[in-house]
Structures are given as structure tokens and as C-alpha cells.
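Researcher: Here's a chain I'd like modeled. Treat it as a single chain, no partners, no ligands.
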Amino acid sequence: MAASNTSGISAQLDFSKWDFPQERIWWRKSDFEMACKICTFVPLIVFGLYGNFMMVYLIARNRALRTPTNLIIANMAVADFLTLLICPAMFMINEFYQNYQLGCVGCKLEGFLVMVFLITAVLNLSVVSYDRLTAIVLPMETRLTLRADKILIGCTWLAGVLLALPLAIYREYRVRVWRNFKERYCKENTNVLPKYW
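Model: Modeled as a single isolated chain. C-alpha cells:
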């Protein structure tokens, strides 16, 4: 209750009467620090993108590799590929600048996309685990068919989107104007999202 009351009071206050603490104002990280982080991230991103792309490409091009298990692995590679394509860039932009640079749309999409890809990958791991269980422990039981596999792949993405939806709905882009600084940030709804987490 106190958290919601505090955020309500904060939204009503006129911060333009006060200075933002001068020692806490910075616009972006130093060029050296940004270069170090980019040089660390980029090789990992490129290597991961290449590996996941090749996995999907080989399974798509080779008919013999299109087994139910391999399709699930390809789906996991797609989720990992999208994670590597989108999430590190958002992370670096947030890390490099003091103010939130992604705007209203970025605020809604940032946490949502990360969580969709994460949940989808985890659910795919669960499906692979089930498939391996039936192959090794229960060889006489019904194994996954291609049709069932495609349904499961669709379900993993649908579940990922539905489970991550609160992060798109209950995040808000805000601007707070101080006398000497214009603060931009992305804030989670403190009434709803703690229950979600």
C-alpha cells in the first residue's frame, strides 16, 4: 500500500522546483567503457547468431533432419537467435545512457520480448526432455509425431506471449522534469508486477 501511495504522490509532485543532484547527472558512459562492452558483446552475439542460424538452416534444408526432436531444437534455436538479435542491443542502450532511450514502445517491448524468448526456450527444453524420456525410458510409449510437434511448437510460443504479456501491459514510460534535468525512465507498476514476479 505504501509503495502505491508513494508512486501516486511522486506522479503528482512538481519536480521542476528542485534541482536534480548535479553529481548524479551524466549523459552516457565514456567511449572507452562503451568500446570495451561492445567489443565483449559483439563476438558473442555474432557467434551465437551464426550457430543458431546454421542449426535452423541445416534442419530446414535437409529433409532427413526434420524429425520431431530436431524441429523442437530448431524452434529453440529460433528463440535463441531472436534473443541474441534483439535483447543485447536493448541492454547496451540502457547501460550506456543515463536516460531511457527506447521511448514508450521500447519500454513496453523490452521486458516483454526478453520474457517471451526466455519462456519459449525453457518450454522447448521441457518438450525435448519429455521426448528424450519417452525415447529412453518408455520406448514402447507413444512418441511425438510431426503434427503433434508442430502443435507443441505453436503452444510454446503462445504460452511465452501470454505469460509475458503483463510485462507489456504494466510497464510505463515516464518523463520527470527537474529544474536542471529532464529525466526519462521506464517504470513497472508496483501494484501488479511484484505479484507477477
